[in-house]
Amino acid sequence: MIDTTQPAGTLTERVDSQDWDALTAEVNEYGHALTGRLLTPDECTAMAGLYDEPERFRTTVDMARHRFGSGQYRYFTHELPDAVGKLREALYPHLLPIARDWAAKLGQPSPWPDSLREWLAHCHEAGQAKSAQILLRYGAGDWNALHRDVFGDAVFPLQVVIGLDAPGVDYSGGEFIMTEQRPRAQSRGSSTTLPRGHGLIFTTRDRPVASQRGWSIGPVRHGVSTVRSGRRHTLGLVFHDAT
């Protein structure tokens, strides 16, 4: 059931008050999970409005030009809006135990320290020093091809997208879609309508999937279905930086 109540408290308090046991169980089962409301409607409107302030961004990507789909997105500079920085800092410690558990199940290294600041310093030492926080804008007919937000060897296995417009009111279509390649089986797809102000936690690249031989790697890709009408904005929170 979607939480329609107005979030109270600071951004950190809103993140901390989520049912993290339930979210963790859902992420482990499906590779993604929808949070309660993290941003108020007014905060969503303000965040979406930043798209028209180009000085806040280091680059703009035209998806059609690069054959990524259709529409635009912009990468923030490291001078992040206060809400973006606080959400990222607040979410990281809750996602970290999942990341470490996944690495243990797959027998992989777990390079992520306790603080986001330390992890980002590691990214920069590895040559990934550009901000990867994204503000996306889609109009009617726009879509995003299936992809992964991997920018180098330093990868955090989970990320979060927050809806900034109301589906069915501000736009139609534009569902968040994921495909998961299962061991020795056909891929599984999922579709999520992203409520305004809510976050979707999802797999960045791959995750552990139970198999007859224990745990196998399940590669995951994500994208956005075609927006049928209106305009759709989302905020993408990535927990590693880019090359």
From TrEMBL:
Pfam families: Oxygenase-NA (PF09859). It comes from the Bacteria. This is 2OG-Fe(II) oxygenase. It comes from Streptomyces sp. R41. The lineage of its organism: Bacteria, Bacillati, Actinomycetota, Actinomycetes, Kitasatosporales.
